[in-house]
């Protein structure tokens, strides 16, 4: 009885303390605005059916009106405004989905003539990849898709493909591929919001034709293309491709071996223009302008040269944003950089959590679909964690810097660099695990080498090279930049070869990512000790990875591949042009492609295959894969689960789970879990529901 009374008293004391802490952090409440907007966006994507188009705006209007009427009651008004922020996010993504709707390629179209205007063209190891705006597709009736992505094989050459040019070619057009497994990455959804209506590959060499003059967007894209080619020609090789990515954001020419090495060492963030790059360019321009103007006494004494330099930094970062393609991380970085230097213009504090919150809210309202992408999640997670950490440690860092001499400050810089790497890696790890199923074990030593090289050598020379390009003098600064990039690539390859450099982990459930996100926000946005409670959902979210059980059987939506789980991976039955699908299955299971057993006797299953059937037993159930029609009758008689890679004209009967080619075309990829007396079947169609981007399930991808 005494223990119960003590527990009750403890809870009664805890609630007032929590309320007092929340009240004490009342200046932090606005920081949750983008979180509320994000909840509305997440709610939209979680729906199984598309809601009425007026729903978000109507609810938002009602809540805002109610908050105005009840403005004399602060608590009620605050709750209503929080709900209004959620409704604003829901309304924003509804508007974005409505404006993104456009025709798409619904089925494979054999080689047909396409006339289009090039929006983007970038080299790849296999040839040239173009994003084009179709102007004419032979045989197509009705409105055209907004954009197509077409690959031109290297053997066809490059007649001068560049943004703004008009091109005619014959190409096979394909629908967008559906997810490889339920709850996997949804390329159709991403493409829907990008206005991408289909894929294709050229069957004849493209031919340039005369067209209308290019607009401003084409002019910028053309400048980007020209600068990319000049950088790659001056430096050459993988270093040239990486250097071009750092300047123009064009990453298509980077070899896959380099991408893998950078990803496995935690350096992939250097290849995507984001906060580090924008802040370096803005900072370099600011320091250069301020130093030059300070050297002129007539300017330094009588004019606000610091503010002029800040304005120059804003313009330089705006040019960098436009040149690099204006991707989401770059937009966020530009907004934050612009606000930082704008604060200098009005003599206000620059970097703060409020700045991060306003930048996040702006992007979520303007580009709400970005919230479900890896780039938005990882870039904001890193920035939020770093700003929160340095805000908490700023007094101690200032005290240390004041007490240290020159050599001590060097050690302080190295220590802060390590601290920054640890914080950024910890903040982005849950998102890297969810999206890529990879963890870079040696990110700290890799970043200790690469980040200083990038900051003090590579990017300063990049700025000099861009300034020298109009005069044709970029060769020597690009050569110097290339030396630094080569050192980064050598370090990445060396560290990636260390034992255990990268770990593959099983698929992370969405609920686990939500827990980690909520915990991280709680930890960063509050100020009092109650922020430490955020560690609990983070820990639970990471433990959730261990709850994932890979499916026992996986079937591709195009009936090109079937995988059966064994010890440590999957046996693959069919592999007709399905390498990407199979790689996704293996990555999400953190498994390997198992060698086919030469003899029966495996304790897990006994696979036996001939020209008609593949048989195996798992979890006490018999599963048969029918590869031809003449094996269907025997399959139905001898198994509890039948997977027919051909259409079935009859039902196998009661108690038999049967999946045929028509089911796969209609429902997409299937995941089957055996055991418990009955097979549990999950499909891509059931996981995604009926949304604007789910009109096409089956898709060929012969590229």
TrEMBL record:
Keywords: Cell membrane, Membrane, Transmembrane, Transmembrane helix. Signal peptide: none annotated. Residues 246-528 form the ComEC/Rec2-related protein domain. Residues 51-205 form the DUF4131 domain. It comes from the Bacteria. This is Competence protein ComEC. It is a multi-pass membrane protein.
């Amino acid at each position: 009885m005494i223990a119960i009374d003590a527990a009750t008293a403890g809870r009664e004391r805890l609630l007032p303390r929590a309320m007092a802490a929340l009240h004490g952090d009342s200046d932090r409440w606005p920081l949750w605005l983008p979180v509320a907007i994000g909840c509305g966006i997440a709610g939209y994507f979680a729906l199984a059916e598309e809601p009425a188009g007026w729903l978000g705006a109507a609810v938002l209007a009602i809540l805002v009106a109610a908050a105005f009427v009840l403005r004399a009651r602060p608590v009620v008004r605050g709750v209503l405004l929080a709900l209004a922020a959620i409704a604003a996010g829901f309304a924003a993504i509804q508007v974005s989905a409505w404006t993104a709707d456009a025709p798409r390629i619904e089925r494979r179209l054999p080689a047909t003539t396409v006339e289009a205007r090039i929006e983007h063209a970038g080299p790849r190891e296999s040839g040239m990849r173009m994003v084009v705006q179709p102007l004419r597709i032979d045989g197509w009736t009705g409105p055209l898709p907004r954009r197509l992505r077409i690959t031109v094989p290297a053997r066809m050459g490059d007649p001068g493909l560049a943004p703004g040019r008009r091109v005619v070619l014959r190409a096979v057009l394909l629908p967008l591929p559906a997810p490889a497994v339920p709850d996997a990455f949804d390329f159709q959804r991403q493409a829907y919001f990008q206005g991408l209506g289909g894929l294709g590959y050229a069957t004849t060499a493209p031919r340039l034709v005369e067209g209308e003059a290019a607009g401003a967007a084409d002019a910028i894209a053309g400048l980007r293309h020209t600068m990319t080619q000049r950088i790659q020609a001056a430096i050459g090789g993988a270093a040239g491709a990486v250097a071009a990515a750092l300047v123009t954001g064009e990453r298509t020419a980077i070899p896959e071996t380099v991408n893998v090495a950078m990803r496995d060492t935690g350096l992939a963030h250097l290849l995507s223009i984001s906060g580090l790059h924008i802040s370096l360019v803005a900072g370099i321009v600011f320091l250069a302008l301020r130093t030059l103007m300070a050297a002129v006494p007539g300017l330094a004494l009588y004019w606000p040269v610091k503010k002029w330099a800040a304005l120059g930094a804003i313009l330089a970062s705006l040019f960098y944003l436009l040149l690099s393609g204006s991707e989401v991380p770059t937009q966020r970085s530009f907004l934050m950089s612009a606000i930082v230097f704008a604060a200098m213009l009005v003599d206000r504090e620059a970097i703060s959590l409020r700045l991060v919150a306003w930048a996040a809210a702006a992007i979520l309202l303007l580009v709400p679909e970005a919230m479900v992408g890896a780039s938005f999640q990882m870039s904001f997670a890193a920035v939020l964690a770093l700003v929160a950490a340095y805000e908490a440690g700023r007094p101690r860092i200032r005290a240390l810097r004041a007490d240290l001499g020159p050599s001590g400050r060097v050690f302080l810089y190295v220590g802060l660099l390590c601290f920054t790497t640890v914080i950024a890696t910890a903040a982005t790890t849950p998102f890297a695990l969810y999206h890529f199923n990879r963890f870079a074990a040696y990110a700290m030593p890799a970043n200790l080498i690469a980040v200083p090289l990038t900051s003090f050598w590579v990017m300063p020379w990049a700025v000099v090279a861009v300034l020298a390009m109009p005069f044709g003098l970029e060769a020597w600064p690009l050569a110097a930049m290339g030396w630094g990039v080569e050192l980064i690539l050598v370090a990445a390859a060396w560290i990636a070869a260390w034992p255990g450099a990268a770990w593959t982990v099983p698929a992370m459930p969405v609920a686990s990512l939500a827990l980690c996100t909520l915990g991280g926000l709680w930890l960063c946005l509050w100020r009092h000790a109650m922020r430490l409670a955020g560690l609990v959902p983070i820990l639970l979210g990471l433990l959730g990875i261990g709850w994932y059980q890979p499916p026992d059987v996986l079937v591709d939506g195009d009936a090109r591949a079937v995988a059966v789980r064994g010890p440590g991976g999957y046996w693959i039955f069919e592999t007709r042009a399905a390498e990407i699908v199979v790689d996704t299955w293996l990555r999400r299971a953190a498994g390997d492609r198992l060698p086919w057993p030469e003899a029966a006797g495996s304790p897990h299953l006994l696979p036996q295959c001939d020209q008609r059937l593949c048989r195996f037993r798992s979890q006490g159930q018999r599963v048969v894969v029918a590869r031809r029609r003449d094996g269907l009758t025997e399959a139905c008689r001898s198994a509890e689960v039948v997977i027919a890679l051909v259409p079935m004209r009859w039902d196998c009967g009661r108690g038999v789970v049967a999946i045929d080619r028509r089911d796969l075309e209609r429902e997409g990829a299937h995941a089957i879990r055996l055991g418990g007396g009955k097979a549990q079947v999950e499909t891509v169609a059931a996981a995604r529901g009926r949304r604007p981007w789910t009109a096409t399930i089956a898709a060929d991808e012969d590229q």
